[in-house]
Design goal:
Number of helices: 23
Structural class: mainly alpha
Number of domains: 2
Strand order of the largest sheet: 1-2
Largest sheet: 2 strands, antiparallel
Helix content: over 70%
Order of helices and strands: HHHEEHHHHHHHHHHHHHHHHHHHH
């Protein structure tokens, strides 16, 4: 059975293969994401805290969990070696691509404005669960549009549009979400792979930027809450107002002096002032334990792999039949054309967490490799792994065979699939990729219609060609 040392050796061999490839494509992103999410395997233990002043989970990685992670590495290396033998033809591009970044920016701003109108000051809440309870579909369309906008603007050198897109990304980060920033960072890194062919100094600089950017995404999770203290009172006031309205609606006479006093106390009862909190944050940044918490005890990778470890350790099993329903949710227009009701589809987390982690008070997301193991053991993990790797192999070929905005689009889709797959089950990933493609397709269609109605000057088109 696979254990820690053979697993580390296998990971080192896989890393050597991907370094030898000298390519930053969706397959390379998938390998990098696997290294990050399989980080507990290098430590030999899966552990995470249930919350501040609460108990923790900690158990050695079991051999079958190592074997499942190893299968993913093997699949990615095998597909990468096969894909690299395929020659691509002339690079294709879209003649109307210059319109795409602006259209995506319009999508992001309009969808974001509608979402802010619907959600309001709840975006300023310190507790992310409160935001998630009130978030609407328009937020997701805005968040899907931003990485496409920045990546296409970067590829076409449309810097003003890219700058506004970055502001939208920072607003999303301030609200408490890191995913858009991560997808954008990864996509732009793929588009900058040409720097790898300009000498080892550029390679070293490229790797250093990736390492610092990746580390920052881990650390920023613990800095968002302190940064939001200046505006958190607006959220607290709205929560108190909503509670008062609900209470008055049930019993108009119940809001007496005692209740009003408690309401006032809840508004003013902040554990620290903003300056005190920022000072405490500065102190935390100077201690090693803060970074240990950021990278280990509170990192998503350790939570996610604890799921796989516990599924294997407790021999947790599910029926494989529900996977078909999860996959079918990825069909375009599945609800209207095929009558697929996604609200009736069961997620892996809804079965796993109550059984294996009943005392964990937060949602632990999903682990596709744990889902596969629970549904069919190692052979199902192999099916998932090679399906994952082959999908990214196709995206890598499309990425290599395209140019301009189209190349940026394949980079973003590759980032969503290659990176984000590790913390979802098939259900979430299928719906996510479907809506990512909706946004992508709508922007291309809108750009084509706009260019058909008002043709872009050919001289301007030539000035933004990259290759």
């Amino acid at each position: 059975m696979m254990t820690q040392v053979p697993f580390i050796i296998l990971a080192a061999i896989a890393a050597a293969v991907f370094l030898w490839r000298m390519k930053v494509d969706p397959l390379a992103v998938a390998f990098g994401a696997s290294v990050i999410y399989f980080m507990p395997g290098f430590f030999g233990v899966a552990q995470f805290s249930y919350g501040q002043h609460l108990e923790s989970y900690s158990d050695p990685i079991v051999p079958a969990a190592y074997a499942a992670m190893a299968l993913v590495f093997v699949a990615l290396v095998a597909v990468a070696l096969a894909v690299d033998r395929i020659r691509v033809g002339p690079r294709i591009s879209l003649g109307f691509e210059a319109r795409i970044p602006l259209i995506l920016l319009i999508f992001a701003i309009v969808a974001g404005a509608i979402s802010i109108r619907n959600v309001g000051v709840y975006y300023l809440c310190l507790d992310k669960t409160i935001i998630l309870e009130r978030i609407d579909v328009w937020y997701y369309y805005a968040s899907f549009s931003v990485p496409f906008c920045i990546a296409t603007a970067y590829r076409l050198r449309q810097w003003p549009i890219g700058a506004v897109g970055v502001l939208c990304m920072l607003a999303d980060l301030y609200a408490g979400f890191r995913l858009v920033t991560a997808i954008t960072f990864i996509s732009c890194a793929m588009l900058a792979e040409d720097s790898l062919r300009r000498g080892w100094r550029n390679v070293v600089a490229f790797v250093a930027i990736l390492a610092m950017g990746g580390a920052a995404l881990f650390v920023v999770k613990h800095l968002i809450v302190p940064a939001k203290y200046g505006t958190a009172s607006y959220c607290d006031a709205q929560i108190a107002l909503d509670a008062k309205i609900a209470r008055d609606a049930r019993n108009p006479l119940s809001a007496g002096p005692v209740e009003r006093g408690r309401e006032k106390e809840s508004l003013s009862d902040q554990p620290r002032t903003m300056s005190e909190n920022l000072s405490a944050t500065a102190v935390n940044l100077s201690h090693v334990r803060f970074y240990y918490s950021a990278f280990v005890m509170q990192s998503e990778a350790f939570v996610i792999q604890s799921i796989l470890n516990e599924v294997v350790r407790q021999d947790f099993h599910t029926d494989a039949g529900y996977l078909v329903g999860q996959i079918l949710t990825g069909l375009p227009l599945g609800a209207s054309l095929f009558g697929i009701d996604s609200s009736k589809v069961v997620s892996f987390n809804s079965m796993m967490q109550p059984a294996l982690f009943p005392r964990v008070g937060f949602g632990m997301a999903n682990n596709p490799w744990a889902q596969a193991y629970a549904a069919g053991g190692e052979w199902m993990v192999a099916v998932f792994a090679f399906g994952y790797a082959c999908s990214l192999g196709i995206l890598s070929l499309l990425f290599r065979g395209s140019n301009g905005a189209l190349k940026a689009i394949f980079a973003v889709v590759g980032a969503w699939l290659g990176f984000y797959f590790h913390r979802n089950d098939l259900f979430v990933e299928a719906i996510l990729i479907k809506h990512v493609l909706y946004v992508c397709g709508a922007s291309i269609l809108a750009a084509w219609v706009w260019d058909w109605m008002v043709p872009w000057p050919k001289a301007a088109q030539q000035s933004i060609k990259m290759d």
